[in-house]
Design goal:
It is built from 10 helices and 17 strands. It is α/β, with parallel strands linked by helices.
């Protein structure tokens, strides 16, 4: 396809502009996707502010998306033009030990669409055939675009090995936090506490089945006497990481998945004496992504209440709005 396309290009801290770029051509094992809907991720907000080392200007971000297949590479046989699809945006080698043992997300040569390679804040994007998933005809493109953030939550909850007897604390009621809540419920937990300073998002969390608090003082009033079984930090600040440790019971487990700050000062002596289990959670395995898509197809997970749809031309304004005051907005899907 010898043509140009519209793309939202990150050009420096708090600078994004619509540009005209060349439409990419798919390699022999790639497909060209016409993007229909693409979400704004929290990691992209930090990138937009210039705080994310993976995202260097100029760059077309965007990795939570769905669309239709426009063109097939010469060796692609699994799909047809016009198929509705979603995409696992983590591109791994699929040859190293991590990849062949189901941990492709930890491949040392992995690349993320919208970070190391051009992403989906554009009319078209090329992706490897193996990363593409066809959506059933009765499944919306919204579901396709939300599969990636749900996969992050699925990965966390599977690492935590949540069961029906576990009390779970989730700090952060953003999109990942709300999907963590729903994933924990699917895996059996009926006692979930969510903390966030955004009271409008906490109202959504309550409707989804969580007990909610907006301060540490409130949390102290509802936390079990001996602490929670599992604590999940979906924010990534030093203070939220410490709060997770503070409210864990002896031999409890904390999962760190938020990435806002690169360092934290943790109470190591307390962690040692209480034999607290600490686990980092990055992205998702291919299996997590497939589970997330299946849960969405089976309607086990509610699409995020508070989702807002905006044309890609309003992309920079959407970023600014999410940074300044997200309010009850849980996800922005840019449309093309």
């Amino acid at each position: 396809m010898n043509a140009t396309m519209k793309a939202l290009v990150y050009e420096g801290p708090r600078i994004m502009n619509i540009k005209s770029l060349q439409v990419p051509s798919p390699g022999e094992d790639e497909v060209l996707i016409k993007v229909k809907k693409v979400g704004i991720c929290g990691s992209e907000l930090s990138g937009y502010l210039g705080h994310n080392s993976l995202r260097k200007a100029p760059l077309v971000m965007g990795h939570e998306f769905s669309g239709t297949i426009e063109e097939l590479g010469s060796k692609v046989s699994s799909f047809q033009v016009h198929n509705h699809v979603t995409v696992n945006p983590l591109i791994s080698c699929m040859k190293c030990n991590r990849c062949i043992t189901g941990k492709a997300h930890l491949c040392s040569s992995r690349q993320l669409l919208g970070a190391q390679v051009p992403g989906a804040f554009a009319e078209y994007v090329c992706v490897p055939e193996r990363n593409v998933y066809v959506l059933p005809s009765d499944v919306s493109l919204d579901i396709g675009a939300l599969t990636e953030p749900l996969a992050c939550a699925v990965h966390v909850c599977r690492l935590a090995n949540i069961t029906g007897v576990d009390t779970v604390l989730i700090i952060g009621a953003g999109p990942i936090g709300l999907f963590l809540l729903q994933s924990a419920k699917i895996l059996g937990s009926s006692n979930i506490i969510m903390m966030d300073i955004n009271k409008e998002r906490l109202q959504i969390a309550e409707k989804l089945g969580a007990s909610t608090v907006s301060s540490v003082e409130e949390l102290r009033g509802v936390i079990p006497k001996n602490g929670v079984d599992i604590a999940i930090d979906a924010v990534g600040y030093d203070v939220t990481r410490n709060q997770c440790v503070e409210f864990l019971k002896t031999s409890g487990k904390v999962i760190f998945t938020g990435l806002h700050e690169s360092r934290a000062s943790l109470p190591i002596n307390e962690i040692i004496r209480k034999e607290i289990n600490m686990q980092g959670a990055f992205a998702y395995t291919p299996e997590d992504f497939e589970i997330a898509l299946q849960w969405l197809i089976e309607r086990k997970v509610e699409l995020l209440p508070g989702t807002v749809y905006l044309p890609i031309e309003e992309g920079q304004a959407a970023f600014e709005s999410l940074i300044e005051n997200a309010g009850n907005v849980t996800k922005v899907l840019l449309t093309l």
